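Sample intake sheet
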Amino acid sequence: MRRRRRIGGYGLCRDGDAVLLVRASPGTRVAGVWQLPGGGVDQGESPAATVVREFAEETGLTVRVTGVHAVVADVIASPVLDVALHTDRVVYDVTVVGGGLRAEPTGSTDRAEWVPRAALAERRLMPFTAELLGLPVTPLALDESTGSGRPVDHPPRPGTGQRFAAYGLVTDPAGRVLLTEIAAGYPGAGRWHLPGGGTEHGEQPATGLRRELVEETGQRGRVRELLTVSNWHDPAALGPEGVPIDWHVVRVLYRVLVEAPTEPVVAETGGSTARAGWFDPVAAAGLPLTEVAADLLRRLESDTAPPK
């Protein structure tokens, strides 16, 4: 099967013990299946902005994003389309600030409803929705007789690219922070960055981060906490061989602990990492850093600062 990737933004919205769900409309390959409101991230759009837009379209409600709830990934295969679609799903906690509940007038959903906790088991749920709500996961059965709806084959538009990546604010028991230097020939060459990189097809983001940590630094770490999700869009980036590309990256950022640190060793050859090192956070702040690394080091400094 052809491998395709997609990034989606979704919202978990509660009212007491009820959760807001939407139902896939007839004619889609998942007709009658319920899920959290949300959908695909447009080129250059942050996943949080996707959630606000999709809630307005699918439910008529205006919502405010209050935090990242979870980041998960799944693969849905369509034998008819000969496509295995990997979706990275960024799920936010949201709260309603306006609007009125209604069904989507036309589109991939046909009903929006507050579903009490006791009634959730009676609904056919998308696997990622069931997992997030702590319910048994039933494999998804696609209706392959229809030619529309989700999941579908969404090849990237010519001249554009989306990338989903996982990075870590990696520390050891002594409080040192682990950084990697970007190799020559790659965007940001010579700057120090967080360990991590693009996830592979079928890979969960935390799993991809642990793999990248071994490849780039030779360290084995424990993912402790989901910190945040960042969005970076450069419509005039240079791709391979200097070809212009509208480039969009969504990064999920974790806190990682290496309990038994060793001297960092870059295992990958010809990759984007030139070298890696452990640094005192104060010394690290004086290095030429990428924007995301500088942001998280400031967060680390704030977290460890003594109370005034």
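Comment: The two ends are 58 Å apart (CA to CA). Residues 291-304 form the longest helix (14 residues).
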